[in-house]
Structure formats: structure tokens, C-alpha cells
Amino acid sequence: MYVSSTRADAPLARPGSGRGVGVTGNVIALGMVSLVTDISSEMVTAVMPLYLVTGLGLTMLQFGFLDGLYSGVTVFLRLVGGHLADRFAARKPVAVVGYGMSAVAKLGLPLVGASVPGIGAVLAADRAGKGLRTAPRDALISLSGTPEAQGRAFGVHRALDTVGAFTGPLVAFTILAAVGTAYDAVFVVSFCVGMVAVAMLVLFVRDHRDPQEHRPGWRDGARLLRDRPYRRLCVVAAVLGLVTVSDAFVYLLLQHRLEIRPHWFPLLPLGTAGVYLVLALPLGRLADRIGRRRVFLAGHGALLAAYLFLGGPLGGVPLLLTVLALHGVFYAATDGVLSAAVGARLPAAGRAGGMAVVQTGQAVGRFASSMVFGALWTAWGPATAIRVLAVALAVALFGSTLALAGRRVRATRPTEVHDVR
């Protein structure tokens, strides 16, 4: 079985055993790169729903397709990026290409103007870059952190990443406040900031290279799926992704319910990002102590609560604050925690590819979710659509809890046992 039985798997066996800080300078450097990148990407993300729906007049069905494309185009490139990073032991170079593609794509938005096919192509190029870089980057974080503190390493990275996610909408809001609805200014500034992130990655992040490292092929990656706990994580990530409404739809639902004025719309992601920023590291540490599975599932419980509030009678500021807080808890409890749980099961040589498989399943689910939710909104209205997704998430969460209930699985050697909590 292609699963490491070394001490590197120890955090999954005993999540609370590590007491070291477990966060190296390379993790910090990767976090700073993500911070600057997220300023660039979130500037665009914050204004894109309003730009497409209000500015260009797209229907919710059209927006659902583009939003699904925004997530779904990364599907196969995640696998390609992870495989190339492992096959050639070139995690940093693959990440550089991915970050560069996303930065350059921002220049395409002012060039294509109001062309919906053109916008779709630019968004696809942007997400293609993300697809290439995500698995190699997460593998570098995992390999740069101590085995006992994978949750903390990813928690620190995601906290820094979220500082950028918090700052990006503020920058977009400031630009739009100065130039009105001249969205092109946001896109150009986003490109410049993205290129700064690429330079930081090249200059300050160290690759993880081992001359003796096994160079896995596609067959080695397929063998990973023989590991039952890893296979369960893949399936659960995909199923829960299928019932996860995209951020853009959450914010559009809030705007619809509360009649938020367009120029305030870019500030909605700040609520999610603020809670995520505060909780990313504490929940990463908690996952190391009590089990990553528990925290990951609890995060989806917070998302279910957000759905119920969005489809319920609560309104006004209480609804706004409650939904954004729960949305932030969801991300803090799931994003880095899932990567930490997966990374702890994988050998160094196959870590990027193994992470890519899980991320790909999740991306496929979210791609389908956006299109389905857009169709439901168009056919039945937003309130009914979110209630249907709430029921689907409740069922998926119950099934996922049962699927991950079995904690102990015997590994390669009869005397070794891994805990997949």
C-alpha cells in the first residue's frame, strides 16, 4: 500500500501529541505569498458578482454557469499540477507557473469588456493557474511543517492568506469609491499586486528537494486509493463539495434579502474573512488536539446553520452578522484542516498528487453545486433554493459522519495503526 508508515504519519495517529511550534520560516513565506495573492484575487472576486449580474445583466442561471466554471476549471489541472510537482520534485516551479498564470489573467478582464464568452475564458485562465499551484503549495506547507503540528502549520498559512482576503475587498471598495463603476481600474491594480506575489514566491520560498526521493508515476497515485481512510476523505470531500453554495451566491442571497446597495457589496466578504482570520489558527490547533475529522465535520455544521438562517425569517443586521460569522467559521474549520488531514496520510514523494486528488473531487462537487443552485434560484427563487441545499447538506453531513466514524485502519505493517480522526 502506497502510504507512508514513517513517523511523518504520527500526527494523524495522535493529533494532540505534538507540542512544538511546528511552523517554519518557509510556511511563513508561503503564507505571505498567499496573503499578497489573495489581495489581488479577492479584489476581483469581491466585485465580480455585482459586475456580472448588475453591470452586464446576466441571469442567475448564466451567473451560476460562470461561477461553476470559476471553480470547476481547476478540476483536472489540480491533478496535473500535483503530478508534475511530485514526478519532477519541482513543487516550487509548478507553483510559480500557477501563480503567474492567475496574475496575468487579470489583465484579460479589461480587454474582453462585456463579452460573456471572453469573461468566461479569462476566469478559466485565472482558475487554471489556481489549479496548478494549489496542490504543490499545500505539499510545500505540509513538508515544511513538523509532523506533529500539521494543523497549526496550515492554520498559520490560512490566517495569513485570510489577511489578504480581508484586505482585497477593502482595496476594491476604495478604488470604486474613487472611480465609480470603472471596474477596469480594479482589474489592473489586481494584476500589479499579483505579480508582486509571484516575485515573492521566487525570491523567498524554498523548494523541498531530496535526491533520494521516489518519483511517483500515475500508477503510484492510483495506489493511494487503496488506503481506506484516504479514500473515505476523497469521497467525503467530493460529496460535501456538491452541497456547498459558492461564496458569491451567499453574498448575493444576503444582498437580495437585505437590499444592500451595490457600492457596499464588495465589503460583504470582509465579514467571512474577519472570522476566518481570527479562528484559522485556533481551529487548526484544536484539530491537532481533538482530531481533524471532528473539526472538519463541525465546520460543515456551521455552514448548514448559515443556510437555515438564509432561508429563515430572521432579517436585518442580525441576519447579516450571523450568516457572515457562520460562513467564516465554516472556512476556518474546513479549509486548512482538510489539507492537514490529507497531508498527514501521505508520503513526501506523493503528497502533492495525493492532495490534488482530494481537491479535485471537492472542485468537481462545487462546480456542479454552482450550476444546480443557479438553476434552482431561476426556477423556484432564492428562498426555496437555499432550503433545498440545506436539506441536501444535512443528509450529506449525516452520511459523511457515518463514513468517517471508523477511526482505526491497519496500515502496511501489522504492528502499525493509523488514526484518521
Fraction of residues in β-strands: under 5%
Major beta-sheet overview: 2 strands, antiparallel
**Low-pLDDT sequence parts:** 1-21, 407-421
Strand order of the largest sheet: 1-2
What is the count of distinct domains? Answer: 1
Which CATH first-tier class would you pick? Mainly Alpha
**Span of the ends, CA to CA:** 20 Å
Helix-strand topology string? HHHHHHHHHHHHHHHHHEE
Description:
The chain is mainly α and 421 residues long. The protein has one domain (7-207, 217-419): Up-down Bundle (Growth Hormone, Chain: A), CATH 1.20.1250. Helix content is 76%, strand content 1%. It has helices spanning 10-13, 25-55, 60-72, 74-87, 91-105, 108-112, 116-144, 150-179, 183-204, 218-224, 228-242, 247-258, 268-290, 292-310, 316-343, 351-380, 382-403; strands at residues 408-410, 417-419. It has a two-stranded antiparallel ribbon with strand order 1-2. A hairpin with a 6-residue loop joins strand 1 (408-410) and strand 2. The protein is globular, with a radius of gyration of 20 Å. The two termini are 20 Å apart. Residues 1-21 and 407-421 have low confidence and may be disordered.
